[in-house]
């Protein structure tokens, strides 16, 4: 059993409001190689400590279990650690035997963005097999309501495995990474979006959600320090400030289907652009000099959205953990020009 996706070149549209001297923020993403990928069947694979192994101790398929690539030295280090553990092993853990399973996750897949893009692309690529091969999920997926909701919509079963227990899968179907994290295969990501949009009943147009600002003020990171002033401007331009995590997945889909302008600081809530109409507008607040976090720029391009960016001062150069200090004068000018 095998299914292959060929290597492709993904071409992205430039941001609508791109300035010449800021092109370096995006230029390395305009043309991206998406490597080949496949779905393949392996026999007698062990899973312990939520990790795929052979002979109970030796890690395999490392690339498919991590969000980022792993180098040769790291692989070698893992091998020697596993070898030492094998030599010194006195484990009497009971082995739980399971006939079939489908592996589609990595170390970040229990997070909303990575589930909806990375994991879902792998799930959709193996969709023809999934009725017979339940998706394997680790215990840290159980408390994520969006995981259960999306699987229910797709009619897929899951097998939850305990981190402390040892399992042997007679038949393990491996759906490899379809694209590097933050990148996509356009056809697949659009199919995912369509599937979830079509799962919802036909809804009436609701102008209350025409413009949504995704709030991260309770997220603990990537918050806006001067949000009280920014919020006044957002209200002036008729944005509805939303904390998506407070709503069910279906509610998020329906709100986004009504949305024409989705804005916010770089964060998972912007993933919901997947459920908006084509040619809608995406406004992303990014840190000055941030050349790394282009996943929403790339997603907007593949979904045929109009992508705009607004650069902001940050507390630190760690753009993943920092908070933002928005120049409110420039921000209002930005909104007034591009709404």
If you had to describe this structure to a student in words, what would you say it looks like?
This protein has 339 residues and is of the alpha/beta class. The chain has two domains: 36-178, no CATH class; 207-338, Rossmann fold (3-Layer(aba) Sandwich). 27% of the residues lie in helices and 26% in strands. The protein contains eight helices and 16 strands. The protein has helices at 72-87, 112-125, 145-154, 186-198, 227-236, 249-257, 295-302, 328-338, and strands at residues 2-5, 8-11, 31-34, 37-48, 51-54, 58-59, 95-103, 135-138, 158-161, 166-175, 211-214, 240-242, 261-265, 281-287, 306-314, 324-325. Strands 1, 4, 5, 6, 7 and 10 form a six-stranded mixed β-sheet that branches. It has a six-stranded mixed β-sheet with strand order 12-11-13-14-15-16. A two-stranded antiparallel sheet has the order 2-3. Helix 2 (112-125) crosses helix 4 (186-198). The longest helix is centred in the first third of the chain and has 16 residues, at 72-87. It starts with a strand and ends with a helix.
What does this entry show, briefly?
This protein is an alpha/beta fold. It is built from eight helices and 16 strands.
Count of individual helical segments: 8
Q: Evaluate the radius of gyration.
A: 22 Å
Percent in strands = 25-35%
The stretches of 5 or more residues where confidence is low (pLDDT under 50) are: none
The H-and-E topology, N to C, reads as EEEEEEHEHEHEEHEHEHEEHEEH
Overall SS class: alpha/beta
Strand count, sense and barrel status of the largest sheet are: 6 strands, mixed
Please state the average pLDDT score: 93
Strands, total number = 16
Mass-distribution shape:
globular
* Helix fraction by DSSP (H/I, runs of at least 4): 25-40%
Head-to-tail CA distance between termini: 50 Å
- Total individual domains: 2
């Amino acid at each position: 059993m095998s299914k292959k996706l060929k290597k492709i070149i993904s071409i992205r549209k430039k941001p609508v409001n791109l300035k010449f001297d800021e092109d370096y923020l995006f230029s390395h993403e305009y043309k991206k190689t998406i490597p080949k990928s496949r779905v393949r069947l392996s026999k007698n694979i062990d899973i312990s400590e939520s990790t795929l192994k052979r002979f109970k101790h030796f890690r395999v398929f490392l690339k498919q279990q991590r969000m980022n690539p792993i180098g040769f030295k790291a692989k070698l280090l893992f091998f020697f650690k596993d070898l030492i553990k094998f030599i010194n092993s006195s484990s009497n853990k009971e082995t739980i035997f399971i006939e079939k399973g489908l592996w589609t996750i990595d170390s970040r897949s229990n997070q909303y963005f990575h589930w909806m893009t990375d994991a879902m692309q792998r799930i959709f690529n193996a969709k023809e097999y999934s009725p017979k091969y339940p998706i394997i999920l680790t215990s840290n997926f159980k408390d994520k309501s969006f995981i259960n909701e999306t699987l229910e919509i797709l009619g897929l079963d899951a097998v939850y495995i305990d981190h402390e227990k040892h399992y042997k899968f007679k038949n393990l179907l491996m759906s490899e990474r379809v694209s590097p994290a933050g990148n996509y295969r356009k056809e697949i990501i659009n199919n995912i979006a369509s599937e979830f949009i079509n799962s919802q009943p036909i809804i009436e147009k609701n102008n209350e959600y025409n413009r949504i600002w995704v709030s991260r003020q309770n997220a603990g990171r990537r918050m806006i320090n001067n949000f009280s002033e920014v919020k006044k401007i957002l209200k002036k331009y008729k944005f509805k400030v939303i904390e998506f995590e407070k709503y069910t997945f279906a509610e998020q889909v329906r709100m986004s289907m009504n949305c024409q302008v989705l804005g916010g600081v770089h964060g998972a809530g912007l993933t919901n652009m997947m459920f908006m109409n084509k040619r809608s507008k995406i406004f992303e607040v990014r840190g000055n000099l941030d050349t790394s976090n282009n996943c929403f720029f790339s997603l907007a391009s593949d979904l045929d959205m109009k992508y705009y960016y607004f650069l902001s001062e940050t507390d630190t150069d760690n753009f993943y953990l920092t908070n933002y200090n928005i120049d409110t004068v420039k921000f209002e000018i930005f909104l007034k020009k591009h709404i």
